[in-house]
Amino acid sequence: MNVISRSPRILLTLAMLAGPASIALAQQPQDQPEADMTGTVTDTAAPTAAEMTKGPEVEGIISARNGNRVQVTTTDGARTVVTLTDATRIKSSGGFLGLNSNKLAAASLLNGIPVTVKTLQSGGGLVASQIDLKNRDLRTANMIHNGTAQGFAEQTAATEALRSRVADIGQYNVKSTTNVNFDIGKAVLSDQAKADLCATASAAEGVNNALLLVVGYTDSTGSEELNQVLSERRAARVVNYLQQACGWKPYRMLTPTGMSEADPLADNETIDGKSQNRRVAVNILVSKGLDGL
User: Which domains does the chain have, with CATH numbers?
Assistant: First the structure.
């Protein structure tokens, strides 16, 4: 396990990630209230697509849900509420799921899942015409919803309890950093990496109010575009393993990110340096407002 305390590189990464959208599973700053998800329904008959105009495409994570209304938070912190109808299509990377909006709202559209929403303008609001998500995110969301010991309802309650105690979630103390490494062009965890990840989760359990921030990196081999995708895949693989195998609760994890070739630990001109740079950093963080409590 490679541990670095209070690394300037990690503080730089945190600064780049700071903002209301940096926290998964609806952990948001107290001074920025959620968009209004309530309202009096006077007419449940939805207009047809022919009666509506094309709206903006919204990409982000689901940060709140109330009946057939879904709030999506984008990377810049903006919140958009869209309405699901029976005509809304739900599409995964592997094809259409064949589920109506009621079934999907219960089974798949969970807080924290990344989505891309195509919309139509209906009066003063937006109607979702199509929602795209990735198979791996859907599998993770279903596992969180169906397989955790606490259950989703209790996780939501715990999220609210933690959020109520966070005075300034954008300010963190970095307690430690664990780096796990990958083979060239791969996003597969080694046995050693798996052991290190669960050891890190266990250590974080012993730190009051700890959160995890997962950041993926690559060496300098290959194009910037391919490396960005690869760094995101590595980060996602680590998040999945931490949650599914190590038991780390998703509401205690900040939104993972891929940083491609940025912030190398070692010289990319050497084989050993490239090996060190093909990594995912798992950072144990505590909000400065909660540290020591």
Answer: 2-23+169-287 (3.30.1330.60), 52-141 (2.40.50.140)
